[in-house]
Design a protein that fits this description.
single chain; 252 residues; alpha+beta; Pnp Oxidase, Chain A; Thrombin, subunit H; six-stranded antiparallel beta barrel; 3 helices; 46% strand; flagellum
Length: 252
């Protein structure tokens, strides 16, 4: 399972915020709403869940919660660059920093670094994606027109973000025209159950597997996602990250 961070994948200058006042306001918003944010190192190969503990404007410093375990924190401190990603009122917030320092804050370990001079505020779909487990694939049921008859077909997810999913269409039965919308889809989220969603096709890619067989990967965007469903999806993403982190730190 790998993370595909969005930082640096495209020209994001239209979404870059350089105003110090606005940057601090957004960071305080994340802090005051107790939002969990992802802390990524080594191009997203390792992800840790953290939260903002303090913002010291006078000394141009911010403090976030440390990762679980000394070895994990050591890897973060030694990383040449650390990226952060979170959500504030459905808006993706991304920033990065170098030279993180492990400190004690209010009698607990924490990480300190300079307030970023800029950040990315994404109001579209560019949230990072996390791959779903291969051992227990997550399924989404979609109504598909096959020879004039509407059939409900289940597709396996490849990855998920708060903006959408990627699915595998092994039999290539879906109309994958960009903009095609599928209503009344059912996403089966572990510990949550079936949630109603509307998916819109954004792109597709033909894949050739190692065994020579072909497959089709289809990128879909959530349309008019309700706040309750978004919260469930975000919690599931956080759950996947915690499980991944536990395995990497030897806890799970």
């Amino acid at each position: 399972m790998q993370i595909s961070p969005t930082l640096g994948t495209e020209n994001q200058s239209p979404y870059q915020v350089d105003s110090r006042r606005e940057i601090i306001s957004l960071l305080k918003g994340l802090r005051d709403s107790n939002q969990l944010i992802s802390m990524l190192i080594h191009s997203g190969s390792e992800v840790f869940i953290t939260s903002i503990l303090d913002i010291d404007e006078e000394n141009n410093l911010m403090i976030v919660d440390s990762a679980p375990g000394k070895l994990a924190n050591q890897r973060i401190v030694e990383a040449p660059r650390v990226s952060f990603e979170g959500l504030l009122d459905k808006i993706g917030i991304q920033f990065s920093s170098a030279n993180l320092e492990l400190i004690d804050f209010e009698n607990r370990p924490a990480l300190q670094f300079a307030i970023p001079p800029n950040l990315i505020r994404l109001q579209r779909r560019e949230y990072y994606r996390i791959n779903t487990p291969l051992s227990t694939p997550i399924k989404v049921s979609m109504p598909v027109d096959i020879d004039g008859k509407l059939e409900i077909i289940k597709f396996s997810l490849v990855d998920i973000s708060c903006g959408g999913v990627a699915i595998l269409d092994e039999k290539k039965v879906l109309d994958c025209s960009a903009g095609k919308t599928f209503e009344h889809c059912k996403l089966d989220l572990p510990t949550v159950g079936l949630v109603d969603i509307t998916l819109q096709i954004r792109n597709h890619q033909e894949l050739v597997l190692l065994n020579g067989k072909s497959n089709r990967r289809i990128g879909c965007q959530f349309i008019n996602l309700s706040n309750s469903v978004l919260s469930n999806i975000q919690r599931y993403i956080m759950k996947l990250e915690r499980e991944r982190n536990a395995k990497m730190t030897g806890i799970g």
